[in-house]
């Protein structure tokens, strides 16, 4: 006989939540981090596009520019490749 799993609601006080996905999206946090880290590592958009191909991401320099400006966002798989390519090991702290 299978054991029945029950779900319980978590009650989290709003003051303890430190991350707001909507605010991060609206402020283009991912794009700003990407642009800053890419530039600090000395990659042009074209060079970074070529680097990402080595990680299995086929994106043009225009596509990267769209990510950085917040017009589009990379997929989770592209984001992992970006982190490897730029040696990003930790995210922002809140």
CATH topology of one domain: 434 Repressor (Amino-terminal Domain)
Low-confidence stretches: none
| Tally of strands | 0
How many alpha or pi helices?
Answer: 5
- What does the average pLDDT come to? 88
What letter string, H or E per element, gives the SSE order?
A: HHHHH
CATH C-level of one domain: Mainly Alpha
Based on Cα principal axes, name the global outline: extended
Q: What separation lies between the terminal Cα atoms? A: 45 Å
CATH architectural arrangement of one domain? Orthogonal Bundle
Helix content bin:
40-55%
- Strand residues, percent: under 5%
Structural class: mainly alpha
- Computed over alpha carbons, the radius of gyration is 18 Å
Describe it for me?
By secondary structure, the protein is an all-alpha fold. It has a domain at 21-85: 434 Repressor (Amino-terminal Domain) (Orthogonal Bundle). It is 49% helix and 0% strand. The chain has helices at 21-26, 29-40, 45-53, 61-69, 76-85. It starts with 20 loop residues before the first helix and ends in a 9-residue tail after the last helix.
Quick synopsis:
By secondary structure, the protein is mostly helical. The protein has helices spanning 21-26, 29-40, 45-53, 61-69, 76-85. The protein is extended.
Task: List key phrases describing it.
434 Repressor (Amino-terminal Domain); DNA binding; Helix-turn-helix domain-containing protein; 5 helices; mainly alpha; 94 residues; extended; Cro/C1-type_HTH
Please render the helix and strand layout as text:
Layout: H1 21-26, H2 29-40, H3 45-53, H4 61-69, H5 76-85
């Amino acid at each position: 006989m299978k054991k029945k799993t029950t779900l319980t609601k978590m009650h989290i006080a709003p003051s303890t939540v430190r991350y707001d996905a909507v605010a991060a999206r609206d402020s283009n946090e991912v794009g700003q981090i990407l642009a800053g880290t890419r530039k600090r590592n000395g990659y042009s958009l074209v060079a970074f596009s070529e680097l990402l191909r080595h990680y299995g991401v086929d994106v043009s320099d225009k596509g990267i520019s769209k990510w950085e400006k917040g017009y589009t966002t990379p997929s989770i798989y592209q984001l992992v490749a970006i982190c490897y390519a730029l040696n990003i090991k930790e995210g922002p702290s809140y």
